[in-house]
Amino acid sequence: MNIRLVLYILGALLIFMGLSLLVPAMVAYIYQEGDLNSFLITAGITIVAGLLMMLVFRSKEEIRIKEGFALVTLGWLFFALFGALPFVISGFIPSYTDAFFETMSGFTTTGATILTDIEILPHGLLFWRSFTHWLGGMGIILLSLAILPLLGVGGMQLYRAEVPGPEADKLSPRIKDTAKILWEVYLLISVIEAVLLYAAGMNIFDSICHTFGTMATGGFSTKNASIGYYNSAPIDYIIIIFMLMAGTNFSLHYKALRGKVFAYWKDPEAVFYIFLVYTGTLIIGIDIFVFRDYGFFEAIQKGLFQAVSIITTTGFGTDDYEKWGASAQVILFLFMFFGGSAGSTGGGIKIIRLLILVKFGINELKRMLHPSAVLPVRIGKRTVPKEIVGNITGFFMFYMALFVVGVMVMSLLGLDFLSAFGAVAATIGNIGPGLGSVGPTDNYAHIPVVGKWVLSFLMLVGRLEIFTVIVILTPVFWRK
Amino acid sequence: MNIRLVLYILGALLIFMGLSLLVPAMVAYIYQEGDLNSFLITAGITIVAGLLMMLVFRSKEEIRIKEGFALVTLGWLFFALFGALPFVISGFIPSYTDAFFETMSGFTTTGATILTDIEILPHGLLFWRSFTHWLGGMGIILLSLAILPLLGVGGMQLYRAEVPGPEADKLSPRIKDTAKILWEVYLLISVIEAVLLYAAGMNIFDSICHTFGTMATGGFSTKNASIGYYNSAPIDYIIIIFMLMAGTNFSLHYKALRGKVFAYWKDPEAVFYIFLVYTGTLIIGIDIFVFRDYGFFEAIQKGLFQAVSIITTTGFGTDDYEKWGASAQVILFLFMFFGGSAGSTGGGIKIIRLLILVKFGINELKRMLHPSAVLPVRIGKRTVPKEIVGNITGFFMFYMALFVVGVMVMSLLGLDFLSAFGAVAATIGNIGPGLGSVGPTDNYAHIPVVGKWVLSFLMLVGRLEIFTVIVILTPVFWRK
C-alpha cells in the first residue's frame, strides 16, 4: 500500500470538496440566514488541509489495486468528516456525531436523517444537505462504471461486458473521458427534472434540492413531510419517473440520448427491474386499495411512488407505509435489499446480481437431476463467467452477514427487533427511512451515539459495494 | 419417472406406518380414554391401502434418482395424510386441515401445534403426536446419512466424505445395514434419556414423550407450558444435553460409542456448532441477566436452554422469550436459520453449510486482492469440491427465496410483519414456535386454512433439504 500516494490524491479531492462548498455558500449569501460563515470557514479548512496533503505527500506514482480500494473508501470518509463541519459550526447540529451521520447519509445517498425538524434549517444548510446527495450520486456512477470494474469489485466487471457503455464503445477508454460523458448525462437529466418540478409548482429552491435527492436516489427533502408536503399528482409522477431513471444504468441513458432508445428493452437488468417494480406496485396497490380504503388512482399513485422510492433506494415518502398492511410492508422491506441497477445511483444488492443469483439457483436445481450437466449462467445472450458468479454469491453472503451482525449490534444497543431490522436494512441499502422507530415518519435522532457510528459505517460499506471497504479491514491487505 | 415403482414402495411404507399405529393403540388401551378405536380404524385403513398399493403396482425394478426424490417426498406426505386420521376420527381435532398440520409438524420434527389446550388430549393421542416426531427423526437420520448422499442433494454427499460414518468405514455399504446401525444408536440414546428424565422426576409417560420430542429435535410436549411445567434444573439440563446430541451428526455418536470419544472434537462442524451455542448463550445470558433481572444461574439455565432448543430446531420452552430483550430475540431468530448439524435430526440450513458459506465468503474477499489466486474451500484437512460449494450456495439462495415468498404469502393472508417472519422461519426451519402471534406462548390455531397448508408445505420442503421437494415441481423432472 502506497499510503503517500493515497493521501496525495485525497488532498486533491479535498480541494475539490472545498471549492464545491462555495455553492451552498452562495445560497447562504442570497438568503442571509446566518449560515454563510460556516461554509466559508469549512471551505477554508478543507482547502488548506487538501493543499497541505498535496504538498507533504507529493507523489507521481501509478495507482494500483490496493491504492484504489483505500482511495475510494477514504475519499467518502473524508468528505463526510469535513462535510459535517458546516452543520456543527453553524450550531444547527451541535453534536459532531449527528452532523457526521447526516453528512455520511448525504454523500452515500442514503437519506437517513437525525433532524427532528428539517424546516428550521437555513436554506444554505438545506442546500448543502441535498448537494451532498448529488455529489455522492455522481461519485457512485463514476465509481461503478469507470473505477470499480478496474478493481474487479462485486462482479462489477460484468456490467462493462454486459452493457456496452461509453467505454466499451471505445469512445473514451480512459476514466477521465468516461467521467465527462457521465457527468454530462447526469447534469442534463438533473436540469430537466428541476425544470419539470418547477413547472409543476415547486419553487426554484425546492425543485433543485429535490432534484438532487432524486437523481442521487438520496431522499433528503426540504420538508418534514417529504414529497407528501406537496400533495400533488404531477409532482409525484415526475419524481417517480426520475427516481426510476436514477435507478437505471446510466450507460443506457447515454445510449438512449444518442438515439438508441431501445437500449432499455434490450437490457435484461432494466427489464427485470421494471418487472419487479410492476409486481411490487401491484401487491402494494391491492393491499392499500382493498384493505386500507384508498381510492383506485390514489392506491396506484401512492403504491407506485413508495415501491419506486424504496427499490431505487431513494426513500422519499408521500405516505406513512407503516400504517399499510403487512403485505405492503413486506414488499417494501424486500425492496430495501433488492436496490437499483448497476451503474445507477441506487444502492442495495442490485438488480443484476439478483438476476444472476436467481439463474444460478435454477441451474443448481437442474443439476439435481443431471449431476454432470454443464450449465453456465446466461444473461441475455452472454455467459456470465464462473468467477463472477462466485463473486456475486460471495457478495450476497457478505451483505446478509453484515445485515445480521448489524441487527445484532443495534439490538444490543437497545433497539427493538423491528427497528433494528429496519435501521440496518435502510442504512446498508442506502434507503433512509426504515421500520419501527426509524420509520417514514420518524428519524434517527434517538439512536445511541455508538449506534449512529455503526449505522454510518454500514452506509459507507453498503454504498461502496461491501468488498471495497471490508477488504481494507483484512490483515492480508496490509501485508507487504 | 417410474410412478408404479414409487407407489409400490409407498405401499410398503404405509404398511409399516399402519403397524406402528399399534403402539399408540396400546397406550390408548392402557389409559382407556376413548381414543383406542381411532387408532385401530386408522391402522386398518392404512394397512389395507398399503397392501392394495403393493398388489396393484407390484414392481421389481431398480430405484433411480427421480424415483428417489419422489419416494422421499411422497413418503412424508402420505405419512402425514394418513397419520392425521386418529385426531379427526377421535374428534379431538375435528378439522382435517388442523390434524394434517399437526401430523406434518410431527413427522417433520417441527413441533408447531394448532392445539390451544394440549393437556385435554387423551394419552393415546398425546403419545401418537410425540411418536410421529420420533419416527420422523429416525427417517431424517436415515435420509441424510444413507439416502440423500446417493441422490446428491444439498451438498449432502459432503458429509459422507467429511465425516467417515458407518458407511465410509466400509462397515455397511448398503442402506439396510447403515439403517440398522443408526437405528440402534438412536434407540440407545433415546432409552438413556427416558431413564434419566424418569429419574429426574417425570412420570414414565411424560419421560417417553419428551424423549421422542428431544431426540427428533421436534418439540411437541405433553404440557401446555412445555418443559417450563416442571420448573426443574435437572430436567432442563438433561434435555439440553440430549437436544445437543440430537443436533449432532449421528455418525459421530456411532464413533463415540465405539470408543472414539474424540471424534466430536476432530469434526469441524461439531466444534463450530458448540462455538455458536456458546456465543448465543452468552449474548442471551447477558441480555436477560443485565436487562431482565434474572439471577446469574437462572440466566445461564434459561439462556442455554432456549439457545440450544432453537439452534437444534427443537422448540421446547422453559420461558417466554418474547419478553426478553431484542438482542436475545435476534439471536434466537438467527438460530432458527442456522439449524442443527448434518446427519442429525435438526433442521434449518445446517451448521456445515454455514461453515462452508463463511469460508467461501472469506475466499471471495481474498480474491479481491489476488484476482488470479486459486483458493479452494477447506473444511478441516479436506478440500470441498467446487460443485458442492455451488450446490450449498444454491441451497442457501433457495432457502432464503422460499423464506421470502413464504413471508409474502403469509402477510397477504393477514398475518402481521413479525408473525409472518416468525411463522415462516419456524416452519421452514422445523423449529415450531416462532415470533409474534405464533410465539412460544401462542399456537398456530388462528392461522387461516390456506396458511396452514402453506406452512405444512414449508415444513416438508425445509425438512427434506429444499431441493428434494422443489425438484419434483419442475417441468424438467416430468420430462421423459
Q: Which of globular, elongated, flat, extended, rod-shaped describes the shape of chain A?
A: globular
- How many β-strand stretches of chain A? 2
Quickly give the structural class of chain A: mainly alpha
Chain pair with largest interface: A-B, 56 and 57 residues
Radius of gyration of chain A: 22 Å
Quaternary class: homodimer
For the biggest sheet of chain A, the summary is:
2 strands, antiparallel
Q: What is the helix tally of chain A? A: 22
Spans of chain A of 5+ residues with little confidence (pLDDT < 50)?
Answer: 158-172
Question: Per DSSP, what share of the residues of chain A sits in E-state strands of 2 or more residues?
Answer: under 5%
Q: What's the helix-strand series of chain A?
A: HHHHHHHHHHHHHHHHHEEHHHHH
Helix content of chain A: 55-70%
Q: What's the mean pLDDT score of chain A?
A: 90
Largest beta sheet: strand ordering of chain A: 1-2
Distance between the termini of chain A: 8 Å
Protein architecture, described:
The structure is a homodimer of 480-residue chains. With 480 residues, the first copy, chain A, is mainly α. Chain A has a domain of 173 residues. Helices cover 66% and strands 1% of the residues of chain A. Chain A has 22 helices and 2 strands. In chain A, strands 1-2 form a two-stranded antiparallel sheet. In chain A, helix 1 packs parallel to helix 4 and helix 19 packs parallel to helix 20. Chain A starts with a helix and ends with a helix. About 3% of the residues of chain A have low confidence. At the A-B interface, helix 4, helix 16, helix 17, helix 18 and helix 19 of A face helix 4, helix 16, helix 17, helix 18 and helix 19 of B.
